[in-house]
Amino acid sequence: MRVLGVDPGLTRCGLGVVDSLPGRRAALVAVGVARSSTEDDIDRRLLAIAEQIDEWIDLQAPDVVAVERVFAQHNVSTVMGTAQVAGIAMLAAARRRIPVALHTPSEVKAAVTGSGRAEKAQVQTMVAKILGLAEVPRPADAADALALAICHLWRPAGALAAPQRSLQAMTSAQRTWAAAEHAARRPTRG
Amino acid sequence: MRVLGVDPGLTRCGLGVVDSLPGRRAALVAVGVARSSTEDDIDRRLLAIAEQIDEWIDLQAPDVVAVERVFAQHNVSTVMGTAQVAGIAMLAAARRRIPVALHTPSEVKAAVTGSGRAEKAQVQTMVAKILGLAEVPRPADAADALALAICHLWRPAGALAAPQRSLQAMTSAQRTWAAAEHAARRPTRG
Predict the structure, then answer these.
(1) Which reaction does it catalyse (chains A, B) (predicted)?
(2) Interchain pair A88, B86: CB under 8 A
(3) What is the average per-residue pLDDT within A79-106?
């Protein structure tokens, strides 16, 4: 399975393509950043990002597009542009009938580090290790997009369809993932 | 000049097309609502709305697409979807090289009622009067989209390019508009 991870942003939108390999391994296919100029009007910026996302999807032909779930509580000064780019990435996939998956930042952290509260640097280090890269991909948005793609590949089977499934039915790795995700979510739920 | 007003929303996205007539009058061309089902996934909902917006633009061939400016402070439960639909409307215009204008809710209220703090019902009544309609367009999202289009047609000449222009250089109607807009903006600025 090939996953395109999208870390949405109006100035820099991270894009990372990862293939699943046998034995729960993953291989880097492509990584980069779609950019728009802060000097352009918002509609031109959205168009620039959309055209780059379209190119990536058409060139890489992912089976799934995994997008970071954006919350209204995020950085208020940039959240509107971030939400709009996330929407445009979802639309680009939907136009091609490619399934879309949304993952929260804590799900992504839990998937690649085992802790939903991991620091950004730890996530990026793990992305490089998992993909067998000599260096951490730069900029951070690019590494975050790869982390999203890995998160989607490594999600527990049926995690999205059956979030209440029994812990006993999970593998050890899935239990670790679920526990980390649960721990990370607790503070935001109250 | 023909303006397509877009009142963005994921469940109901208001769409209203207005032509300018000589003597600061305006004529209704078309009004309606793009809808998506709350039972569908977000990517399918965005696709449904995008396809309806595309049809409206291609059929009505507006000179400008006027979109309500969405703020992060809006209703938190719906603001992400609203922002994403606004982004998709801007992208649809940008793909066709049609200029996009953003107007705040208080600008729209000031343009059609003279007061940036007018109630929703007052705005809708004025939309019907301005366009010579026997009844207020329903649903409210449709009327709001027409108000956006009228706001764009009636904005003071050069309002966007030169916000600091002299009050003396304005017509009486423009002064009323500018004063109402200024009054409406004051509380949110401090």
Answers:
(1) Endonucleolytic cleavage at a junction such as a reciprocal single-stranded crossover between two homologous DNA duplexes (Holliday junction)
(2) no
(3) 96
Minimum CA–CA partner of B47 in chain A: A91
Count of pairs with CB atoms under 8 A, one residue in A, one in B: 78
- Please tell me the total number of residues recorded for chain B in this structure: 190
Interface contact A13, partner B, CB < 8 A: no
Q: Residue B84 is nearest to which of A47, A50, A87, comparing CB atoms?
A: A87
Domain boundaries, chain A: 2-189
**Cα B68 from Cα B182, distance rounded (Å):** 18
A107 catalytically annotated = no
**Tally of helices (H runs) and strands (E runs) in chain B:** 6, 5
H or E element: which one contains A124? helix A120-131
A96 in B contact zone (CB under 8 Å): no
- pLDDT of res. B70: 86
Q: CA-to-CA distance for A173 and A186, rounded, in angstroms?
A: 20
Low-confidence winner among A55-59, A167-171, B12-16 (lowest mean pLDDT): A167-171
B160 touches chain A (CB under 8 A): no
Q: Do B84 and A102 touch (CB under 8 A)?
A: no
CB atoms within 10 A of CB A186: 11
DSSP characters over B144-178 = HHHHHHHHHHHSPTTTTT-TT--GGGS-HHHHHHH
Question: B-chain residues within 8 Å CB-CB of A86?
Answer: 84
Q: Using CA atoms of B163, B165, B166, B169 in order, give the dihedral in degrees to the nearest 10.
A: -110
* Tokens 């007061």 sit on residue: B115
